[in-house]
Amino acid sequence: MNTSTDRIERQIHIKAPRSKVWSSLADAESFGNWFGVALKGKRFVAGEPIEGNITYPGYEHVVWKVVVERIEPERLLSFRWHPYAVDPHVDYSHEPTTLVSFELEETRDGTLLRLVESGFDQIPTHRRLEAFRMNSQGWDAQMKNIDAYVASH
Coiled-coil segments, which residues (predicted)? Predict the structure, then answer.
């Protein structure tokens, strides 16, 4: 396993209490608002799937599907998904998933949010690099999105 291609790691310091960051992350509807997926009226439940249409322009045809792995209130939310599964004509269900973990740590003046997406080395070779590249860029944007969402709500 090559850790430079197997995992994406990002972190951001958000100037808000951990409880506020947690509610923006763990409340499915709030998550959908900053992430860009329609999750109105839905809940994250450990061990259960959740899905909704992407709301980002140009990707509205994509159904975002994850299986929630773990929820540890105000500390950890993780889920599994098929990375960069955007072609509606492809059945990704036979492929391995990656694990996305959000961890929160209280700091003196806010909250440190760490994101790790791991498991790319298990993705089929013909998709691996593009999925890694696109998700890497996506997480850069999503860290800014959650920071802006928390600041405005």
Answer: none
